[in-house]
Amino acid sequence: MAHTTVYVGCTVPQLLKGASRIFPSHSALGVLRHSSFYYCTVNGTIKSKRKMDHLERTANNFRQEVITQAKVCGITDESETVKRLRLAIANKDFTFKAGQWVDFFIPGVSVVGGFSICSSPGLLEREGILELAVKHTVHPPAHWVHTECTLDSEVALRVGGDFFFDPQPGDSPVNLVLIAGGVGINPLFSILLHIADLHGYQEGKGNGYKLGTVKLYYSAKNTSELLFKKNILGLMNTFPGKITCCFHVTQQRSQICKELQPHVTEGRISEKDLEKHVSNNTSWYICGPPPMIESISKLLSNIGVPGNRVFFEKWW
After folding, report:
1. Phi and psi (nearest 5°) for 118?
2. 130: helix, coil or strand?
């Protein structure tokens, strides 16, 4: 999920003040109810008449009522333009599903951000940590992350979103095809990490989870803009045959490193790439720029993928 602009009727200090259960003001709720646009949908038509703000765009999505305080405990450069934040969450009742996003409240900044979570629910459960990968833009929350955010900076978070993968013990296994464009990898990386956690948990305890295979197709301009690539290669090595990935680059100018070469294809994700995965027990998750989602959705329809098996989330 990319960075959008929203002004709410209550100030950030008010949101942060006091207990962890804080509810938005009536004016903020009015903004939430204003739009009938579905940000995440299944087999929907994607049309954008104007650039809506984050709360408008996500008005009909699920949203938790709890706003939780968080402290920055780690900042790294994921690429030249993307910073990865580690946030310590003190509230033990804070939860999310792999693929969801957070409303991002910053003290002293009246603009509320919306960023997809790129870590797994398991990391939160084990260590009380949530991660975000934020691309540098002029959008105030993103600009703050890149220019003012430091270790121990305090923010507040609220989880939302209907785009997620949350299998339960006893569910029939499904194969997943994850298709990412640019920083649209964030929620899909969260899903990938969650599946890796479930594989590890399954092997350790035999807990009843039945998991299919996962194939990630990830497209970016060049290999330097492929986020989490070392982590993804590590997952493929740890779970051979269960998790696989094909990176696509469209404007590569430099030599591709030997470690990545076997997994990189130059050119866009094509019908030929995807048609081999069509089956009755495959679900498709797509996240990226709207034109990419429109193109991939049309391609999937052309190769016979039922619309109710395709899930997508736009960033903008």
Report:
1. -110, 5
2. strand
Same domain, 156 and 209: no
Domain that holds residue 302: 175-314
The arrangement of strands across the sheet holding 40-42 comes to 40-42, 310-314, 282-288, 175-181, 214-220, 243-249, 264-266
C-alpha–C-alpha distance, residues 272 and 23, integer Å: 48
Do both 298 and 190 map to the same domain?
yes
Same domain, 84 and 179: no
Q: What are phi and psi of 162, to 5 degrees?
A: -110, 5
Residue 23 included in any domain: no
pLDDT confidence bin for 232, thresholds 50/70/90: very high
pTM above threshold 0.90: no
Separation of alpha carbons 25 and 237, rounded Å: 48
Q: With residue 298 as reference, give the H or E element that holds it.
A: helix 290-302
What count of other Cβ atoms lies within 10 Å of the Cβ of residue 271?
Answer: 12
